[in-house]
Amino acid sequence: MTQDNLPLKILFLCTGNSCRSQMAEGWVRALKAGQIEAYSAGVDPKGMHPLAVKVMAEAGVDISRQVSKHADTLKDMPFDFVITVCDQARESCPLFPGKAKKVRREFEDPAAAKGTDEEILAVFRRVRDQIRDFVTGLPCVLTGLPAGLPETLTKGE
Asked: What are the boundaries of each domain within the chain?
């Protein structure tokens, strides 16, 4: 929460906006509703990956209605944080207005996984769980505050 008791606005940015950033948005909506307003976008959107939707549903989080979108569609939104979840998005990250802090937190790209169907699903599940663990620590992990403190945050800190 911000000083004004408004939820933090966080954009999760990746290349395709099909897996990692979508999972992060879904986890925030499920775990941090009221504290964080989550968005996701890509620098080269590819559409929702069906396995991302599937593994999130297995965890009880429905992301099937989320839409893959280009970062430019959110360029006028005043974010508190822009979190890049892959290196390519960080390098291509558009400028956002205001004092948005850029944070880099890379996750393996499950869409690039190779192997049997079960091996590929295992990668999607592992990345899903890593993203859940990261989101669980928000916003403290963004500010260096110890986890477990009240989750209040002042803009500009």
From this structure: 8-143
140 included as an active-site residue: no
Spatial CB neighbours of 105, under 8 Å, sequence gap ≥ 6: 83, 84, 85, 134
Of 55, 61, 86, 153, which residue is the catalytic one?
86
Active-site residue, from 8, 11, 13, 14 = 14
Which residues are CB-neighbours of 116 under 8 A, at least 6 positions away?
none
Q: Would you state the pLDDT for residue 157?
A: 36
> Does the structure show a pLDDT above 70 at 142?
yes
> pTM for the full model?
0.86
Region 8-143: CATH code = 3.40.50.2300
Is residue 86 annotated as part of the catalytic site, yes or no?
yes
- Which is the catalytic residue, given 1, 77, 93, 120? 93
